[in-house]
Amino acid sequence: MRFDIWTFVLIAAWVILIALLIWPLSSVLHASLIDNETGAFSLTHYVQIATIKAYQRAIGNTLLAGFGGMAGALILGVTLAFVTTRFHIYGRALIQTLAVVALVSPPFIGAYAWIVLFGASGVVRKGLATIGISIPPLYGAAGVILVFAFKFFPHVFLITSGALAAINRSVEEAAESLGVSPTKRLFTITFPLILPAISASALLTFVLSIADFGTPRIIGRDFNVLATEAFNLYGSEVGGNPGMASALSIVLIILSMIVVFGQRWVLRKNVYHSNLIKKPERKRAHGLKALGLHVLAYAIVLIGALPAIIVVLFSFRRTSGPVFQPGLSLQSYERVISTVSDPIWNTLIFSSIAVVAIVITGTLIGYLISRRPGIATGALDALLMVPYVVPGIVMGIAFITRFNEPPLALTGTGLIIIMAVFVRRLPYSARSVAAALKQVGPNLEDAAVSLGYSPGKAFLKVTVPLIVPGIMAGALMSFVTAMNELSSSLVLYVGSTITMPVRIYLSVMDGEYGTASALSTILLTMTVAAVYAAFHLSGRKESALL
Predict the structure, then answer these.
(1) Are 111 and 191 in contact (CB under 8 A)?
(2) Distance, CA of 324 to CA of 327 (rounded, Å)
(3) What is the helix (H) or strand (E) element at residue 141, kind and residue range?
C-alpha cells in the first residue's frame, strides 16, 4: 500500500462516513432492539410489526406505493423514450425541458398541485361538476401512485433514452429480415438489450417512491406507509415511540436493500450485449400515426409538468384564507416577504454550506474510486450506495437519536440539518466526479508527477481543471436536491432553522395555499436555474441528471 496524501484522504473519507452514516444508522438499529419500558434488549418492536394489523398494512401500502409508482413511471418513461428515440418528433428539446421541469419540482409540491386540481375543492372537479360530471377527489392509494408515476418517469425517460440510442441497429434489422413482427421484436430483442437501463431506473423509482414522505402525507389521507408511520410515532405528542419508529425505519431499509439485490440478481442472470456498429435511426411517421405519436409524447410531459405550471399560476391568484378568489394579485408574495422570508435564507445558507463540503469531499472520494482501486476504496464505493436507499425520514431519526445528548447535542441547530444534507447528497458529487475521471486518462497526471509534482499538486493543477464539468454537474445537482430536502429536515428543524420545503409542507397542511404556491414558485425557480446552470456548465444534458 502506498502511503501518500491519498492514503490520508482515504482514511478521512472512512472517518466521515463512519461518523455521519454508519454511526447514526447504528443508533436506529440499537433503538429498535431496546424495550421502551425496561431498557433491555428485546425484539418486541419487530414482534409488534409482525402482529399488529396497522403496521402490516403500512408495509403493504409501502410496497403498493413503491411497485405502483415504479410500474407507472416505467410505462410512461419507457414509452416516451421509445417514441422520441425511434421516431421523428418535433420539439424534442421542448419535451426534454418539460421532462426536466417535472423532474426537478419537489414531489410534495406536485402532490399539493394535484390537490389544487383534483382535490375535494379542486378547480377541475368543480369545473366538471358545473357540467354534471362528478369524479371522486384524488386521495388515497390511487392518488399517491399517480403522483409518483408522473413525478419519477423522467428518471426512466433519461436513462432508457440513452440506452435505446446505443443499440446496434443491425440486431433489430436481422430479426426483421427473419420475419419477426415489430411487437415481438420489441419484447425479444430491444427490451433485453436495454434491460440494465430499465432495471436501474426501476430500482431508482422504487426507492424514491418508498422513501417519499410528503406525497403520502398530503394525498394519502388514511393511506399510511412506513415513512409516515415512523414520523407519526417519533413525533407523537404523547412522548412518541422512538423504538417502534426505529424498527419501522429498519424495515424500510431492508425493503430497499432487497430490491437492490434483486435488481443485481436479475442483471446477473439476464444481460445481453451488442456492439454499436450502426446507430438506430429515427423513422418519420405519417398521417394519423404521426399525430398519435406526437399527442402521446406531449401528453406525458405536459401532464408531468402540469403541477409545476399550476403552482406558478396559482401563486399569482388572489386568496382569502385557504380559498383562491378570482383575479390576480401579488399578495401571496407580499406575505412571503413580510412573514416567512427566514425559510428562504435558511435554505440557501444550509444548502450552500452543505454543497461546498460535498464538492470538496465528493471530488476527493470520486478520485479515490476512479484512480485508486482496492479493497478499501471498493468498500467505500459500495458504502456510498447506502444514502441512496436510506429514506430521508430514517436519516433524520438517526441523526436526532445520535446527536441529541452532550457532547454532541446538535438537535435544534442548523449544523445538524447541514450534516444530514451533506451525507445524503454526497454520492451525487462522488459519482459525477468518478464518471468524469473515466473519460480522462491518467497520463497527464503521471507525467506531472514524473516532472516533480507531488501527487496532491498534480491532482489540483492537472486533473481538477480537466474534470471541472463533472465537478460542477455534481455540485449543482447536489444543490438542487439539497434545496428540495423535506423528509429529514422535517424531523430535524426547529422554529429558527425551518427551511422552504418544510414551510411549504406546513402551509399546505394548514390550508395556507397562497403562501405555499408563492414559496413553491420561488423554490422551483431556484431549482430550475440551478439545473440550467448544471446543463450549461457540464455540456451534457442527460448525464447531468443521472
Answers:
(1) no
(2) 9
(3) helix 141-165
pLDDT grade for 66, boundaries at 50, 70 and 90: very high
Q: Take residue 42 and report the three cell numbers written for it.
A: 428485546
Distances (CA, A) of 246 to 26, 64, 76: 10, 21, 35
What the block records as the C-alpha cell of 314 is: 396559482
**Residue 367 grid coordinates:** 478520485
Interhelix angle 5-17/342-371, nearest 10 degrees? 130
> For 228-243, what is the HEC assignment?
HHHHHHHCCCCCCCHH
Closest to 88 in 3D by CA, of 276, 278, 291: 291
Amino acid at the residue 212: D
Read off the pLDDT band of 237 (50, 70, 90). very low
* pTM beyond cutoff 0.70: yes
Contact 185, 175 (CB under 8 A): yes
For Cα atoms 408, 404, 21, give the angle at the middle one, nearest 5 degrees. Answer: 75
pLDDT tens digit string along 396-437? 888 988 888 787 888 889 999 999 999 998 987 887 788 777
Is 99 in contact with 80 (CB distance < 8 Å)?
Answer: yes
Among 401, 61, 29, smallest CA distance to 217 is for 61
Please give the Cα distance from 454 to 5 (Å, whole number). 9
Sign of CA pseudo-dihedral 442, 447, 452, 457: negative
Identity at 486, one-letter amino acid code: L
C-beta separation of 167 from 280 below 8 A: yes
- Cα distances from 250 to residues 26, 77, 382, 424, in angstroms, run 10, 30, 19, 17
Burial of 329 (0-12, 13-18, 19+ CB in 10 A): middle
**Do the Cβ atoms of 417 and 492 come closer than 8 Å?**
yes
Phi, psi of 319 (to 5 degrees): -125, 155
15 is written with which cell numbers? 472517518
HSE-CB for 465 with a 13 A CA cutoff = 7
DSSP state of 34: B
Residue type, 329: S
Residues written for the chain: 546
Amino acid in the structure at residue 308: A
Alpha-carbon Rg of the chain, whole angstroms? 24
CA-to-CA distance for 307 and 218, rounded, in angstroms? 14
Residue 497: DSSP 8-state: G
The DSSP secondary structure of 380-434, one letter per residue, reads HHHHTTHHHHS-HHHHHHHHHHHSSSTTS--TTSHHHHHHHHHHHHHHHHHHHHH
Residue 450: half-sphere exposure toward Cβ, Cα within 13 Å = 6
Q: What is the DSSP letter of 496?
A: G
Buried b (16+ CB within 10 A) or exposed e, 451-485: eebebeebbeebbeeebebbbbbbbbbbbbbbbbb
Backbone phi and psi for residue 201, each to the nearest 5 degrees, phi listed first: -70, -35
Please write the tens of the pLDDT for every residue from 325-373: 777 888 888 888 887 778 889 999 999 999 999 999 999 998 888 888 8
